[in-house]
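Subject: for your reference before the review

Hello V.,

The reviewers asked for a structural picture of the protein, and I figured it would be easier to keep everything in one thread rather than splitting it across files. Below is the amino acid sequence we used in the manuscript, unchanged from the supplementary table.
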Amino acid sequence: CPDSLLLHEQNQTRLYLLNVAQLQPERDMTRGLGKHSHHNAPVKMLPTFVRATPDGTEKGDFLALDLGGTHFRVLHVRVVEEEQKVLKMDSQICTIPTDMMLGPGQQLFDHIAACLGDFISSRNLKGQTLPLGFTFSFPCEQKEIDKSILIRWTKGFKCSGVEGEDVVKLLKEAIQRRGDYEIGTVAMVNDTVGTMMSCGYRDQSCEIGMIIGTGTNACYMEEMKNVKRVEGEDGRMCINTEWGGFGDDGSLKDIQTTFDVMVDEASVNPGVHIFEKMISGMYLGEIVRLLLVKLTEDKFLFSGQASETLLMPGSFETNVIYPFISAEHSLENVEHILTKLGLKWDEVDARVVRVCCDTISSRSARLCAAALAAITNRIRNNRKLGHLKTTVGVDGTVYKKHPNFGEELQATVRLLAPACHITFMVSEDGSGKGAAMVTAVAQRLAPACICTLYMPLY
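And here is what came back from the structure prediction:
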C-alpha cells in the first residue's frame, strides 16, 4: 500500500529528527567555526563581519546593489528612525548581456558602474556620497565587511580576471575609471544576512535569518569567543552557516531515500549540498516525480501506465505540489495538472498523489525545523539561558507559497526547542532593504572601528 510505504518514511524521519536537531549539527557547527577544522567541515559557518543587528537608531539614505544573475538591481533605500521603517525609494533593473557574462571582468564591472551611475544621475542623487550595500550572490570568501574574494563563478558566468579577486575592489576601480560620481563605504551582504537585517529593524530580537526557496540557508548571531577562525573574544558576529552542506560527509545517509540519491546523482554537483537537495524548492518536485514513477511501476498508480511527460526529469515542478495540498484549490485544478502530465487517472490516483506531495513537503518542513532548532538551542546554550526569546527573519518561495510548510515547520521547532519562544517574520526584500540595513549598522558602529578590529585567521 502506498500509504504504508510513505508512513514508514515519515516515521523513519521523525525518529531521526532528535539527532538532526541536537547532536550532528552541533558537532558540525563547532567544526565549521574552528581555526583548523573549518577547511573540511561540511557546514562552512562563514564569518560575515556583521557585528550587530539593528538597534532602531539607524537612519539615512543608502544605495543597494543586488547582483546574482543575468539581471541586477540598483536601489535607493531610506531608513527612517522616527517611523522605524526601511523604505525603498526607487529601483532599477539592469540586464547583463550574455557575451558580457563570459568576457573580461573589467568589462562586466564597467557595465555595473555605468548602470549605477545612470541610476544616481536620473534620481538626482549626484553630489551625494551614499554608502552602498552590495549583495553578490556567488561563492565568496569574506575577509572583512568590505572585502570579499570570489571563489568561483556560477549561474552561467565565466568572466576572466575575477575569480580569486576582491569584488568590492573591482567595483570601486570601475567607478574610479568613470570619475563622474562617488560612493561611500561598501558592505558586502549575503542574502541570508540581508533577510535577518531587513527584519531586525522592525524587531530588534531578530537574530536569525533563514531562506527556504529554490535553495536554503541560514545565518545567526554567534558569540565571538566561539569563532576561532577570527581574532577577538568580545561581542558577537553573524555567521552564514551554509547549512545546505549538512550531510555532505554522509551523516544523513540513514534518512536518504532512493529518490534522494537519484536526485543527487543527477544534479550538476553530486555529493554536494545533500541537505539542500532534501528540502529546497529546486528539488522537491523532482523527488515527488520519482516517487510517483516508482509507485506507477509497482502498479499502485495510474493502472501502472506512466506518461512520457511524467518520465521526463523536471516535469513535476515544486509549485505543482501546492494545489494538491491546499484546501483552497479545487479538484478541477488537480484534474488539470494530472491531465497536462498526460496521465489517465481516477479519484484514488489523485488522493495518492496528494499523499506523496504532502509527505515529501512535510519531511522538508520537519528537517528544516530540526536544523533551525539546532541553531536556536545553540544560541540559548551559548548565553546560558533557561529560556530564549528570539525572532527568525524568513524569505523564500517555499515558505511563502507552500500552504502548510510554515505551520509544520513552526510546530516541529516548538517540539525540538521547547525552551525557545520563536517568532517568525517574513522578510521584505532582504537583498535590497536588508543590504542597506547592513550598511547602516556598519556605519553606526564605524566610530568605534569595530568593523576592522576582527581579522580572519588562516
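For the response letter, the relevant points are probably these. The two ends are 55 Å apart (CA to CA). The domain at 60-193+432-443 is CATH 3.30.420.40 (Nucleotidyltransferase; domain 5).

Happy to draft the paragraph if you're swamped.

O.
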